[in-house]
Specification:
- It is built from two helices and five strands; from the N terminus they run E-E-E-H-E-H-E.
- By secondary structure, the protein is α+β, with helices and mostly antiparallel strands.
- The strands form two sheets. It has a three-stranded antiparallel sheet with strand order 1-2-3, with no helix packed on it. Strands 4-5 form a two-stranded parallel ribbon.
Length: about 120
């Protein structure tokens, strides 16, 4: 496996676990610091189109934030010591609850929600 950002072959294992698949490791490229998973094979090309996560209609931002508050806070507490003055990209950011919390500590935040 090589880093798909810088093509470097070396990674270090980061602490933590993948909520949906504990067999996956969280890796950090030793060259560019990109954080990725040990495998991306579990992601199907139509995952977001067919996820059914919110039915046919997306909820209001307020209800979505309320629904994810506990997980957003958990993620913020777990990462807050390494967020200071960093740039953060959250792929699959939902309603951006985590990014809203992280924004107070970071240099910059951005989020992408495929759904």
């Amino acid at each position: 496996m090589t880093c798909y950002l810088c093509n470097h072959p070396d990674f270090r294992i980061r602490k933590g676990a993948v909520r949906d698949d504990p067999s996956l490791q969280i890796l950090e490229c030793t060259n560019c610091s990109l954080v990725t998973l040990s495998s991306l094979q579990h992601i199907q090309t139509d995952h977001y189109e067919d996820s059914g996560m919110h039915g046919t209609d997306l909820p209001s931002i307020e209800s979505w934030l309320s629904e994810t508050e506990c997980d957003d806070q958990r993620r913020f507490e777990m990462l807050k010591t390494i967020l200071v003055n960093r740039k953060v990209l959250d792929f699959g950011c939902g309603a951006a609850g985590f990014l809203r919390k992280a924004q107070s500590l970071t240099a910059e935040v951005a989020g992408i929600e495929p759904e």
